Amino acid sequence: MRQPVTICLINQKGGCGKSSTCFHLAGAFAQEGMRVLLVDADPQGSLSQGFLGSALVESLPASETIAALFDDETYFLDYQQLPKPTLDELIQIVPANQHLARHNFPMPETTGLKQFAVQNLLEELSGFDVVLIDCPPNLYLCSWNAMIAADYVVIPVPPEDFGTQGLRTVHQAVENVRELNPGLRRLGHLISRYDRRLLVHRSYERELRKLYQKMVLDTLIPEAAAFKVALTARMPVTHHAPRSRAAKMTQQLAKEILERIAEHVGKRRVA
Ligand SMILES: Nc1ncnc2c1ncn2[C@@H]1O[C@H](COP(=O)(O)OP(=O)(O)OP(=O)(O)O)[C@@H](O)[C@H]1O
Ligand SMILES: [Mg+2]
Fold first, then answer.
1. What residues make up the domain containing 168?
2. Nearest to 236 by CA among 220, 218, 219, 253
3. Ligand 1 nearest atom to the CA of residue 134, by list position
4. How many domains does the chain have?
5. Does position 111 have pLDDT exceeding 80, yes or no?
6. How far apart are the C-alpha atoms of 259 and 117, rounded to whole Å?
7. Is the pTM of the predicted complex or chain greater than 0.85?
8. Lowest CB count within 10 Å: 5, 51, 126, 256, which one?
9. Which of 11, 19, 237 to mutate to test the pocket of ligand 1 (most atoms within 8 A of CB)?
10. What does the alpha-carbon distance between residue 216 and residue 190 come to, in Å, rounded to a whole number?
11. Which atom of ligand 1 is found nearest the CA of 156?
12. Residue closest by Cα to atom 20 of ligand 1
């Protein structure tokens, strides 16, 4: 059985486009005929609400969400029941809601087997080509779990924060997780919510590329109303407005991600 490629989107900075990128990227991968599993690892449940609507997501009992993986009282968990269908038959989602909040411990290294909850889930599920894990704006147990389960990390960065201190903390977390998941690789920083008319965004881009070089994805995600409008319609922009620039950039991002992964896998084979 072929393993899916698993990518998590992390940054402790809020509002930088983690959920939005997962949401629309799922559409781009599905358009390529790939079977996508989304794992919402954020107690805010934004990604789940995007696909399933907030009323439904908020009403889900813990047993039907990712929280079930962490609940001590869940003895006989049927992992196959957790992914929920979306409007696109190629995209399924393991949802999250407020029930996950109590499990998001700030000191993940001390939580024993709970560190591997998402990894266990992915080992039980089959039939997917790509898994995208959306993380909350912190590096607690939920993000930690995502990194342990993932092959690659993408770090969305809004082009306005010149302090790299926050990014260093993210990189340190990736390094720490490598002790438990040595295969984890950084695919790169993703400049998100980019407005090319703004000088501040253009200079941030230049600085980030100078600092991190190949560790910055070539593709940028622009700030665009089309992303928000598509979200309101509960459809990735690739489906809702396939001819928009937002859709084209999302497709380009999906392509670049697959190319970078292929390049990395190729290098590993040669080595
Ligand atoms: N490229 C974009 N263009 C326009 N709006 C965007 C874009 N990316 C994100 N947004 C909007 O900005 C808000 C925050 O984005 P999003 O929820 O993806 O960030 P996040 O990093 O997941 O936040 P959190 O850390 O709280 O989980 C959302 O309302 C989203 O629709
Ligand atoms: Mg989010």
1. 5-270
2. 253
3. 22
4. 1
5. yes
6. 29
7. yes
8. 126
9. 19
10. 6
11. 21
12. 15
